[in-house]
Design a protein that fits this description.
By secondary structure, this protein is α/β, with parallel strands linked by helices. It contains 11 helices and 12 strands. It binds ligand PBG.
Length: about 325
Amino acid sequence: MNQRRLRANRAIRELTATAIPDYRRFIQPVFVDESLSERAPLATLSGVFSESKNSIYASIEADLANGISKFLLFPVPLKRGEPFDFSFVTSVLSDLKRQFGDRIWIAADVCLCAYTSHGHCGILSNDGSRVLNAESVSVLAQYAVELAKAGADCIAPSDMMDGRIGAIRRALDETGFDTVSIMSYAAKFQSQFYGPFRDACHSSPNAGNVLKDRKTYQISPANPSDALESVRRDAAEGADIVMVKPATHFSDLIYRIKQEIDKPVAAYHVSGEYQSIELLAQHGLADRASAHVEIWTSLTRAGAEIIISYAARNARKWLE
Ligand code: PBG
């Protein structure tokens, strides 16, 4: 047996490579922070910036020049607490759509963690002991409609409340936004790897001693059946794209979803996963581009069609 014949030179390696990520199926997350007057580097996400309402245009122009046209928009609003005010992100969104039209595709994150005073993804009961499901879903559905009105191409609910996909789908259909798609964070796990993101969005849960983490709504990494059931349910409720998040150490789920459900799967290589690679590279322990490409290749091999990465804007360059 000579396996090395297939590895012998670039030509034969190219001929036999089948798990090849395509930059056209990458989504670039973008933060837009109301408190900023110009773009600001994120201390915990190397090479990533938070944009201001004005700086975001140049950033998107640059991405378009690099072949990246799909974005996942995360707002960091100034005002937190009820009644929720979604006007910052809706004004950013409608301005962007006015400027760029169909040259860009924007998925708008739908969650309350950047809006609640306590940083949880939904509304808390009066005693602070529970995240209320029905109350949260009803606000999320209203929020989704406001985003669709502002021009969102896709709604991406990341809150992990039960029944939100069905509620959002109904609300969008009833208001005439039946062509706005839903990318559901269906298999979203409770994880240590969201740290840099929460830093950027000031969205760490801080509701005192009662609910210190998101374990009562995000999926336990030890419960793969729960993740599969959540994906089946979201698909049945009308999700067009289902997501697995984090990506690398949950790629078994990507593979299993592809076996069972005929929906596009998005893998979200989250902030902590991204930053681990950045830190390795900064210490000279890995080549930055090659390391990201290796991860993207593994997600493609597992079956993910769509990759969400903080390094997406380099995808065309690095994959060529
Ligand atoms: C908020 C949300 C989170 C991420 C995306 N949307 C954080 C969380 O659930 O605490 C994480 C993204 C990342 O880490 O890159 N619902």
